[in-house]
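User: Before I run my own analysis I want an independent prediction to cross-check against. Here's the chain; please return only the structure tokens and, at the end, one sentence I can use as a sanity check.
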Amino acid sequence: MATWPVSVVVLYTQVDALVKGEAIDLISDQETARVAHEIASGLAGLAHRVALAGVRHDVARALAPYPPSDWVVFNLCESLGGDSALEATVPELLEARGYTYTGAPAAALALCLDKAHTKDLLARHGIHTPRYAVVSSPGEPCHVPLPALVKPLAEDASVGITYDSVVRDEAALARQVAYIVERYRQPALVEEFIAGREFNAAIWGDNPPQPLPLSEICYDDFADPLQRLLTYESKWVEDSFAYHHTNGICPARVDDALRERLLATALAAYRLTGCRGYARVDMRERDGVPYVLEVNPNPSLASEGGFVRAARAAGYDQAHMAERIVGFALERATLAEAEKR
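Assistant: Structure tokens:
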């Protein structure tokens, strides 16, 4: 097992083109390279030995110079070959080759990418989530009450979400389902629109997992409640109005009772979906009840992103946050070795 300081190879996605979706969706995939350099620079500044390994298709080839006996993998891969459906294959390969790696295992990544399976699991365990339906064609019956949010069934990073995604009538619902099916080559998830406050709960660690300070998304500059959502532009398009007017407030200004309910819900969702190392749980609140929108294993660690914002509120800069995440991976590996004895 590696000793401190650690040799860390930051493994990240390199994407030249996508296999589906809009051309603009490439922004979030290419952002991963910038984040990888931020993480590598931060860890190197803390005296760790650091290497960068970009991967397009062949993870084994990218890692060939870095034997698992000597290197910990900081896994920032979000797709392979421009296909987000292959994200879960990366930790599978890392485990098969004996690497200690950061973040979620394959099962959690695969589960949380499929939003319907995640919501079904949450609901079966008593965790509130907006009512939903999976719709494969625009003419298919859908009993989700309107207004509703229509998005791809299996994408992350708000891919496929625009203000047109919130539909108010049957005609708009049919148009948006047709768009998702055609452009993203998958069914649409039609989800009840919860018109309430929106929160992000960053969770990290495993034994036990711990919440970081709660964040709330500020939608004060949006008069229409149906435009109060995090679209793709609001996360990734820096010259858009939405990007500059959907800021996170951290710590969130909530009373103790609501904070406890939100964090308890987030921790339950983290454990239930098998997240590991670090994750972010997105929720809305209606009448004091938290509704889980999505569980995001291995969320963005960009310096301006929500997870880093929460870590800063807890006293960690980006570099020390990354070091702590590496530490969680090493702790897990140490426990696994002890169990084998």
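Sanity check: The chain has a mean pLDDT of 96.
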